[in-house]
Amino acid sequence: MGDKLLLFDFRCTSCDEKFDALVKSEQRTHTCPACGGEAKRLISTPRIALDGCDPSFPGAYSKWAKVREQRTKQDRKRREDHGE
User: Fold this and answer.
1) Domain ranges (residues) in the chain
2) What percentage of the chain's residues is helix, strand, coil (to nearest 5)?
3) Structure confidence at residue 47 (pLDDT)
4) Which tens digit of pLDDT belongs to each residue from 40-64?
5) What is the pTM of this model?
6) DSSP line for 38-70
7) What DSSP state is assigned to residue 28?
8) Sheet (strand 38-41) strand order
């Protein structure tokens, strides 16, 4: 089994380009795709899963929001049906 790759933000020390890259968690530097210089890993907000949706994938948050809205409607209807 190979090492797990994680998505981190980097900023180039030469051209100031900001980008993200899939790297091993212990990797602190990466080659800049814009100029080939050395880029350092940035401290960034961790990516978390929301109700099983990984927000690092496009559309994940909108999917989570729809699921959340459906659950809210179901809860509201259940309370109304039971006179709460």
Assistant:
1) 1-46, 48-84
2) 25, 30, 45
3) 60
4) 999 876 665 555 555 555 566 677 7
5) 0.52
6) EEEEPP-PPP--BTTB-TTSTTHHHHHHHHHHH
7) -
8) 18-24, 5-12, 38-41, 29-31
